[in-house]
Design brief:
Helices cover about 20% and strands about 40% of the residues. With about 170 residues, the protein is of the alpha+beta class. The strands form 2 sheets. Strands 1, 4, 5, 6, 8, 9, 10 and 11 form an 8-stranded mixed β-sheet that branches. Strands 2-3-7 form a 3-stranded antiparallel β-sheet, with no helix packed on it. The longest helix is centred in the first third of the chain and has 23 residues. The protein is globular and about 45 Å long.
């Protein structure tokens, strides 16, 4: 085997292991989804905050998973490199655009549809592999005509199936 061939093989092996290491260290955590007067609200869990402190949010994006391909419904991006500290005690209300962010108007969310949320943010600690927080939710109409926000757990069949039937949300 020539030295050039050996170098190429070693570079290939090094490149492969470097990519495997990079893939193995990144992490997306679960976002918390709640309801404030029938409007979805998004944050991180107390457990995440205890683990990593307050992450710095650079963007938020919501997509409708009920259509294929999924379509973006609403989003905002912090401008000028600014970031918003995200606390488990404060949630980001659907449709509210933080000061210093560029965003689009939020359309009304429809009942019976499954939506995904992605909070693009990471802890201040550069050694932490978390680079975002994701979640899924749907909106159902109650018997009184009110709208109920249902967070879909990442460990449920509804998460895998992108479905909004309440019985499939039981963990």
């Amino acid at each position: 085997m020539s030295i050039m061939s050996l170098r190429r093989n070693m570079l290939f092996v090094l490149f492969t292991f470097t990519n495997l290491h990079a893939c193995a260290t990144s992490r997306i955590a679960d976002a918390e989804i709640s309801s404030v007067n029938g409007t979805p609200c998004f944050t991180i869990s107390q457990t995440e905050e205890k683990r990593n402190g307050q992450p710095l949010l650079g963007a938020l994006s919501i997509s409708d998973l009920s259509v294929k391909p999924a379509t973006k419904v609403w989003s905002f991006v912090m401008s000028g490199g600014r970031k918003v500290p995200l606390s488990s005690k404060i949630c980001l209300l659907y449709g509210d655009i933080p000061q210093g962010a560029n965003g689009m108007p939020a359309p009304e969310l429809q009942t019976g549809r499954v939506y995904s949320i992605f909070l693009n943010g990471r802890p201040d600690d550069p050694s932490d592999p978390t680079y975002g927080y994701r979640g899924k939710f749907c909106i159902v109409a109650t018997s009184t005509g009110e709208r109920k926000i249902i967070a879909i757990g990442s460990d449920t069949p509804a998460w895998k199936q992108d479905s909004c039937t309440e019985h499939s949300l039981i963990r």
